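Q: Can I see a sequence and its folded structure?
A: Here is a first one.
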Amino acid sequence: MYHLKSRTPMGQLNSFRKDPLAFLERGLDTGEDVVRFRLANKRVTLIMDPDLIKQVLVVKEDAFQRFKPYKELAPLLGQGLLLSEKPLHKQQRKIVQPSFTPRHILTYGEEMRRKTIDSLRGWGKKEKRLLSDDFMSLTLEIIASTMFGADVLDGKEQVGRSLEEAMELITKRVRSFFKAPKFIKTKENQQFQKAIDTLDEVIMKIILNRKKTGNRSNDLLDTLLYSQDSEGHRMSDRQLRDEVMTIFLAGHETTATALTWTMYLLLTHPESYLKLQAEVDELCREEVPTMEEIKEMTFMRDVFLESMRLYPPAWLINRMPIENIQVGDVGLRTGETIMISPYLMHRHPAYFDNPEKFIPARFKQGKLLNVPDFVYFPFGGGSRICVGKHFAMTESMILLGALIKNFHFTLSDIEYIPEKFPLVTLRMKDGLLVHSERRF
């Protein structure tokens, strides 16, 4: 175990706030599996041993709860699946999980294809595009359509702006030691509330439209509306809103972020780009790949998984012990902060040769060989593993295949080196600006 020392009252807080990824990499550079430091008055334990990570996320998960500062997300996500604790979390996950089974995803695949076709037909023959925004827009349309039977075409730009503003303000509050209570009408608090009000308006319109028509549909919204607990009670309006908001936002933000990093890596590794293009051209008979075709696109899967190794959207997982507990030979105190970083583990030199390099060949048929569990875990683990994991993989491969099939891309600036922007997800700070040209 290594202790990062600090003689200031704020401990390592300023260093962490300035550049969280660089700060955490200092922990990796110590060569130790457990690193302790202080963020102001809070003791933090950074764990980088896969066995200990498994203990926290799986074996002894009932002894931990979510990181309290992430309650800053509560005005946005409420007690939805991302923030709720047991037993509510277990109950809600049981309701949501069936909508993400392979059988359901098979039906969603056709809607994903339809939305992608409609979107790409609006692109020009040759133009400059901010591809990161395109991904955000298209994944937003897809999650709204597949999960909630809704069309958000008219309001998607406003939703995108509100989401981005809310995420930045939440991140700032999470990392701040001193922050104004939400009831004080500071400029930032008012901006935050305005963003939430905008998103609420979209969400409630979707819910109320379905209730008004009374139409039944084989989608997640229908499941949420008509599910009942053991006593026959349906979900409250507030809980319904929270679950819809959580799936609506988390269901497109993470996928769009992962796709943006994937395209950047392909554009800076032309040999992989050309290999992927050859695979898509060989297997994809139409303008957008089918569900059967993406099953055969093994190199595309390896590319996407390797991209999430280098740039996992969920770059940091935090837990807090609800009791004093021993994990391996590490003693953890009630209420201290436990940090687990997929970003660090995915780049751990003990498990990866040339960990900073993009090498899709690390994966074979979608599997990473010769590494223990919880070295590579872009979707998290335990009972909180991402409920939409297979949905996200399917959507990503359909979108990526469609882009590679129909367009040739180059970076707008061939020397562009993106800045990592670790908000709630690991974004690309200024997005991905590209030149696109239709191939056919």
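Q: Show me another, different protein.
A: A second, unrelated one:
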Amino acid sequence: MSTQLDVAVRPGSPPVVSAEGEAAAWAEAHREALHAVVAEHGSVLVRGLGLRDADQVAALYQRLTGSLMAEKEAFAPRWTYSEGVYSSSKWPPNQPMCMHHELSYTLEFPRLMLFACLTAPAQGGATAVADAPTVLDALPADLVARFEQEGWLLTRNYNDEIGVPYAEAFGTEDKSVVEQYCRDNAIEFEWQADGGLRTRQRRSAIVRHPVTGQRCWFNQIAFLNEWTMAPEVREYLVDVYGVEALPFNTRFGNGDPIGEDVVQLLNKVYEANTAREPWQAGDLMLVDNIRTAHSREPYEGAREVLVGMGDPVRLADCSPTVNAG
């Protein structure tokens, strides 16, 4: 069943749809129409569903997506509410989570992101969005050409002191299982003397949307780079652990460091193309994870946003420009 939706489109804001009635039944009736709005605009915020608890959100997500993914290779802790339903990443409230595409460093990632706000922050905390083809077109041609040819390199250090321990990121303490996962997913790995794990994975920075064929800037180059960290955090971590032992960092695909100027440029282009709408309790947001980057802005007060990752798609089906490895 599908009915027409009244979509409010305003500059600087994601499209907004007003809903009435019981959340799961409304979603069932409007599923096709909602997906059509996401296909047209890249995202949609649904207001008026009155979402109140995790069970209600889980039932809603199951009606809106073909399947929910389990998170893997996590870079920040989350609470698990139920199978496929998570808290937002535990990240300092006063620091932004800059624009990124969820799990864009893996070989399989969600095509659809689902966000449900149970508690809205007192101030800030929007899940903002940016159109990836527009961002790609706004970047300098020579920089795009380099990333298209080389891809990007993600380096990670898993230990018990900073970041996420490998057992949490990979869902097991069995080193042989972790090693096999890395081999299967084109991740170079090296066990450290202290029992930690260091990894490197090369990925495409630009992909084609598997449905529309649009070229999309699709990565976490800026978000997971050392220069996006708050200066005092970066200085402390580099002083204590050294650049090579940061919990995560990004480089050009050939291993060259990415300069602060490049990271500032990427974040500036994202900001120039950002759309945001403050959360209200009970809101739902759907985001096409390949076409649309999302962020989490700094906030004050309590904030509870539940996350679902739906409709998995493989990198191999998105015309990658480099071989993973």
